[in-house]
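Q: Hi! First time doing this. I have a protein sequence and I read that you can turn it into a structure. Is that right? Here it is:
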Amino acid sequence: MPRRTVALIFGGKSPEHEISVISARAVAAQIDPQEYAVTPLYISHDGRWHGEECSRKVIGTDLAALLRSGTPDSARARLQEIAEEFADERFDFTAFQENTEVAFLVLHGAYGEDGRIQGCLETFGIPYTGCGVTASALAMDKALTKICAMAAGVEVAEFMTILSADYFRDPAKACDTIAAKFAWPVFVKPANLGSSVGISKVHNNAELRPALDAACGLDSKVLVETSISGREIEVAVLGNEDPLASLPGEIVPGSEFYDFEDKYIRNAAQLFIPARLSDAESSAIRESALAVFRAIGGSGLSRIDFFLENGTGRIVLNEVNTIPGFTDVSMYPMMMAASGIEFQELVDRLIRLALERKS
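A: Yes, that's right. Below is the predicted 3D structure, encoded as structure tokens:
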């Protein structure tokens, strides 16, 4: 039987670019070479699509080690060096469209997880892993995700949104509005970024404006929400019309909250898979994950994050990631493995789900 051709698309224009490269390296190592012929496809920081030679050189770089031993800037500089070596190449979109049977997406954040690349692939007629255009766009916007969750009966933290343009016109007014509405602490988050990029925990008025400056500088809309005191619980969801929810996992952050450095550089967080929950708590959280997944119209996969509030036991949605990380410290593949689906089988299922959705 001929092998199916799979384009492994990674990189992209978002601040999560380097994490995408690390995810792609892990996925490439797990795709069954007997079943699939894989062509890596790297999108550089400036949005240029690169051919196989450049893409293989990028994916062969151990970026995880660079992040741990150096800095995010050193990792980015190395990727830019590689891209510059191939500055004169021209990507053949016609050949890509004609030769690709399915795309495996490991693009995190804006321009990859937000429905844009999904719409492009649908225009090309190429099936792809993960959620469709609408679900991807909804889940990328943390505020819209909360609205969908509330409609499905899932609780969310009290929140408000601020347009960055409004904030920069009158920062004092925005700060006064937030201080009047919330008790400290609050979280300030770019509405459309992941991997905890640009997120700040704000404890008082003095910390608020720097947090808003940082978040509004990264996104056109910012979410401000009350801090939930509770345990951080995540669930991996896999499937189309009849999705399954994994055993939950639990994260105990190594810093005040589970931020970018905690996830990918210091590796200081404690992970418990399965989470330390009663059977009733585990069942309720898994049902909440499926309810949110269905509410956004999810397909393929998502990682859905909750808080289990201290004292009340309330299950409160944190966020939805439609293309979660696939690095060696990523929760999604580890939760699936704990639920009986190892990495190679998981990759195979995701490809088959993509083809099933097209048919």
